[in-house]
Design goal:
159 residues; mainly alpha; 10 helices; 0% strand
Length: 159
């Protein structure tokens, strides 16, 4: 994810100068195909990050969320190690809550490393100067989606 964040930011100068492409994106034909993109302009740093990074990163992280959510109980049950864990005096809810908290820490780590990669790319790309708060809030905005997907996968694997 560090490399993806870095790559997306470094690729901006090749797209940032295409004002004609922005006019095409706002044409009625593209509005019908893509829907109303509002004021998002692909040639600005915020618009470029919104379209190129924040639109597909939930799909990549959803794969991680589903795999981790299923493995919280399903992986140990398949390996036969959950019986040993549940034979201890630890309540079952505590085992699941602690594993879900580990999932939250993992998602925060992934989002943090992506931000680090983006900041490294911003150092090398003077044209890309979005506010650091915009990037941080954009990444934190992904957290509720990742929590929902992970919790849903955990629920379905536990049931």
């Amino acid at each position: 994810m560090v490399l993806m964040g870095l790559y997306i930011v470094i690729a901006y100068p090749t797209i940032g100068g295409l004002e004609e492409f922005s006019k095409v994106m706002k044409s009625p034909l593209f509005q019908v195909l893509l829907g109303d993109i509002g004021e998002m302009d692909w040639t600005t740093p915020q618009g470029f990050l919104g379209i190129e990074l924040f639109s597909w990163i939930p799909l990549i992280l959803a794969v991680y969320a589903v795999m981790f959510g299923i493995n919280i109980t399903g992986g140990e049950e398949a390996h036969g190690t959950i019986d040993i864990l549940l034979s201890t005096p630890t309540p079952r809810w505590q085992v699941i809550a602690e594993k879900f908290l580990a999932y939250i820490v993992g998602v925060l780590f992934i989002l943090g490393t992506t931000v680090i990669g983006m900041f490294i790319g911003i150092v090398f790309t003077p044209q890309m100067q979005p506010a650091a708060s915009v990037i941080a809030w954009g990444m934190l905005n992904l957290m509720p989606t990742m929590l929902f997907i992970g919790a849903l996968a955990l629920l379905l694997s536990t049931l």
